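Project standup — Tuesday

K.O.: blocked on the structure for the chain from last sprint. Re-posting the sequence here as requested.
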Amino acid sequence: MKKEVMIDMTSGRIAPQILKFAMPVLLGLIFQRIYNFADSYIVGHFLGDNALAAVSVAGVGMYLMFSLIIGLTTGVTVVMSQYYGAKEADNVVKTFFSSIYIALGMTIIVTVVGLIVTKPLLIVLQTPDEVLDQAVLYLRLICAGCIGTMLYNWISAVLRSLGNSVVPLVFLGISSLLNIVFDVLFVAVLPLGVGGAAFATVLAQIVSGVACLLYAWKILPMLRIRRDKLKLDTFIGKKMLVYGLPAALQMSIISISDMTLQAVVNTYGTTLVVAYGVCVKVEGLGMQVGDALGTALGTFAGQNTGAKNISRIKAGFRTTFALNAIGYAIVSPLIFILAPLLMRLFTDNQASIGCGVEYMHIFAPFLIGVGTLNLFHNLLRAVGDVKITIWMGISEVITRIGFAFLFSYLWGYHGLWWVSPLTWWCAAGVGGLRYLSGVWKKKIEKAIPS
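H.V.: unblocked you, prediction finished:
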């Protein structure tokens, strides 16, 4: 096992380890957002506001699909990082080969179900008639090509569980650049409309996933496919599902609450849909600090759960919490200041720009809450306290849906801008109470059977 490929986070200085792991993840997430921005910019610039609104609405459905995939691969990360921290190399290999079957199964399910429910889902979301057909086409193409999304997220989960966040960054960067090139080709050069934008995304993800897998096989010979190893270990498979299915459920029910909010936004027409669609992308970009630090903390906590080192896990959380605060002291003011410029990048509609700036000025100061929420999610899941993460997700659903209808009734669309910020803090409060209770410590002894 090469040191430059895998990083043991069960010893050594914590802050450098967290930052060394988190920075490539952050860069990768930013690359991902950049190509999402490029997708929206090219669609809006060459195809107009209706096409941009269609892609924005379809994006909510995409998030549901990605939630299931990312949630399930989280189970791979947790189990493999625990075995790696416990120095059980044989079980690390067994986890990898068992995860192949889980990844394939989820790909088939998401593809088939996604293709069937796309149009009914978008109708339930009250998608405006003038953008419905384009949104259906875009989302169906994304679902049909979800094998690329699964492939990349699966192999990235494997590498990150072993402490390697650099290789996934490299290939996500390649994917981002390819997506921009393909967008220009299939939308600006070839007249393929929103279908071209979807095809560009799918093709870029497949190329990235295949390349990442091939390179992982090159640097980690133990992961190369061998007939004698290519079998499902039922105990480890069940263990991955125990962690992965609750994570998928938690992420998917959150996405359902997001879809409810989108449905309420859709009732206000295309102008607000465009504003909200741009703001969601900026909001997602702002979340990347917490996402990256949360991912680093999850791997750190997973490995130290395998080593049964509670004091180091607590120290890792304190360090990451401080880094999260520093990060949002920089990011939040930037979004607040740049809000008008960010809106003008995507639309010339002055009404949409005004609505978008209003929303950015509200959610920017609250972003530290979603960052903290990500830290609690990743820590508690990594130590085996998965049930509370589901309750955190349920709290998000209840508050987001409740606030969406209540605030829109009281203050119209202006009230919708307060829904997500308040929801983040409520869910983070649930996680914070669980962490302070110390109940999670009892889960560590059960995480890796002796």
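K.O.: great, moving the ticket to review. The two ends are 23 Å apart (CA to CA). Residues 164 and 178 are 23 Å apart (CA to CA).
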